[in-house]
Amino acid sequence: MASLEVPANVPLPEEDAEQLHKAFKGWGTNEGMIISILAHRNATQRSFIRDVYAANYNKDLLKELDKELSGDFERAVMLWTFGPAERDAYLAKESTKMFTKDNWVLVEIACTRSALEFLSAKQAYQSRYKTSLEEDVAYHTSGDIRKLLLPLVSTFRYDGDEVNMTLARSEAKILHKKIEEKAYADDDLIRILTTRSKAQIGATLNHFNNSFGTSITKFLKEYSGNEYVQLLKAVIKCFTYPEKYFEKVLRQAINKLGTDEWGLTRVVTTRAEVDMERIKEEYLRRNSVPLDRAIAKDTHGDYEDILLALLGHDHA
Amino acid sequence: MASLEVPANVPLPEEDAEQLHKAFKGWGTNEGMIISILAHRNATQRSFIRDVYAANYNKDLLKELDKELSGDFERAVMLWTFGPAERDAYLAKESTKMFTKDNWVLVEIACTRSALEFLSAKQAYQSRYKTSLEEDVAYHTSGDIRKLLLPLVSTFRYDGDEVNMTLARSEAKILHKKIEEKAYADDDLIRILTTRSKAQIGATLNHFNNSFGTSITKFLKEYSGNEYVQLLKAVIKCFTYPEKYFEKVLRQAINKLGTDEWGLTRVVTTRAEVDMERIKEEYLRRNSVPLDRAIAKDTHGDYEDILLALLGHDHA
Prior knowledge:
Chains A, B: GO terms for molecular function: calcium ion binding; calcium-dependent phospholipid binding; phosphatidylserine binding. Chains A, B: Keywords: Acetylation, Annexin, Calcium, Calcium/phospholipid-binding, Metal-binding, Repeat. 2 copies of one chain form a homodimer. By secondary structure, chain A is mostly helical. Chain A contains 20 helices and no strands. The mean pLDDT of chain A is 94. At the A-B interface, α13 and α18 of A face α13 and α18 of B.
């Protein structure tokens, strides 16, 4: 369930655009106004506001925000204002760049979005960067990591619910054999995780658990020093327990000395319209502190305000 | 979230009582009518129907149901028609009887209900059986199992959200020490689990996980042959992941050769008004088959119909 709160009576996009235009004018920017509008509109509404803003003021709203704002607050407002596909494209591009290389983000985007959402992100990537996500990933990775990531971002997965139990049984056996042999980058293992539907992978991993008495991630636990194995675990976690995967990203971002604002902003902006309520629940369960309180303790100012607004805790 | 579906326009209790009265009349009983009424009324509505039935027909609705129905269907209708406290009292009584001894049910009731709900169940137990749950548990158990169960069912736990992080840290250390010493029935370990609030136990177990790199249940996994350790694990599971605990009870009930109708009926009737939607989600995730389909495959007739109705799948 989404945490985003949209008022019962949403102003017309024209009114929102006008208020935003005013917020940029004069001495200083009215950050509170920006939050009170943008952090309470869904993707369609934000997109209308951008269209109207461009038509009425002949300016790109995103460029205006970029010019007026700065730091973590700017990044949060920008990421949030994007539509989901555009935002994923932007995050994916960032993570293939040399200086910000972050293979986790690629796994996260490839594995927690639906097949169609991910395809839209790849289309947005192409139209924005004039390259394909696949070529960038292939170019910037190597070895086992490329062997896993490239098919992961390439496949247009089947998204249906049907599962083939016979196949699940035989592929669970293959996974178990490969993992016992410590052949974590085995062709078959990668083929199964990168091409099967999420429902089918779920069935295979359930069979694994039933037949071998423990989940596949527990088998992988011992080798968690290795980056490749870490990514493999993230793939599985994203498929099976996305809310726990995101809880962990948040936990690590917040507990880090100095807070990892990139991770925090990414999870809040990408999940506020999707499953943030569930992630908040997992966060409380795992940390015994509500997420909004943890964020309020670690951040401040406008950045804190927009994160709390997106979490549905404007007055926390 | 509850799976129970109540129609937008609920008939008056008088009308429901009259329809039920008719359903018992003439040749055979109209089971479909019983399901269409009772399986679509919440606890308050069912209680009104019972009151009106008693007033208008001078008969106890539960006794009528008992007389007219039989087998698994009867048990499901009876358990469901009870109010939550009465039902818990009945289940607890069953589970302390010699022939049906089932310590799991006691753990389940003591650990997944709120403090007030559990207190109401104990009050219902006393008014119905003229004994206290505590004395029955004490009388029918012994050794380590009594040492754990008796305080578990005795404590009126604090139900607040506040947690003391310093305490969580020190008690996590105690738990770790005791478990490393394999002192699973240690006084302190039992004191912590049976007297601390659920929120505080959650914080302690989170600290355990953070400090020792793995959850307490993984430490206990190796000793799972032992009934006492099994119960200890159930206590922890009920506190931390009730939806997973119930998913497992359902999975084991359904996968058993011949289906364990008692477990199945218990979970469906006790959770339909509480968190059955979440349990269904966990069931699908862990078994790759929707719960309603699994139940439809394993049960039949009126019994199947009432279970599916309570799951919100009348027309499955």
